[in-house]
Amino acid sequence: MKDISTAKNIVDFERIKAILLFVSVIIMIVMFIYNVRNNLFAKDDETRKIEREQEERRIERMEIIKNMK
Fold first, then answer.
1. CA–CA distance, 29 with 23 (Å, rounded to integer)
2. Where, by residue number, does the polypeptide cross the bilayer (predicted)?
3. How far apart are the C-alpha atoms of 58 and 47, rounded to whole Å?
4. Averaged over 32-59, what is the pLDDT?
5. What would you report as the CA-atom Rg of the chain, rounded to the nearest whole angstrom?
6. Cα separation of 58 and 51, whole Å?
7. I need a labelling partner for 2 at 20 to 30 A (CA). Which of 20, 33, 64, 69 fits?
8. What is the pLDDT, as a whole number, of residue 19?
């Protein structure tokens, strides 16, 4: 009788390990998606200002090159 309860405890322990592994993988996936979203789409005002200034300078350079021809 003792062997059956011990086997059941081992099975429960393996099941718990599997559940914890699954939960940790889900957490890692969520963190990855959050980081990718922040890096690609979330921009503060300073970043937008810098990008706008860079684009304006690029357009000015293109106009200068066009006028040189």
1. 10
2. 16-34
3. 16
4. 90
5. 28
6. 10
7. 20
8. 96
Cβ-based neighbours of 50, under 8 Å, separated by 6 or more: none
- Cβ-Cβ contacts under 8 Å for 43 (sequence gap 6 or more): 51
Tokens of 57: 């300078």
Q: Would you say the C-alpha torsion 28, 34, 37, 42 has a positive or negative sign?
A: negative
Could you give the C-alpha distances from 23 to 10, 15, 29, 51, 69, in angstroms and in order?
20, 12, 10, 39, 62
Residue 29 sits in which domain range? 2-68
Using a cut of 0.85, tell me whether the model's pTM lies above it: no
Residue carrying the six token digits 């309860």: 5
- The encoded tokens of residue 2 equal 């003792």
Q: How many domains does the chain have?
A: 1
Cα separation, 65 vs 62, in Å, equals 5
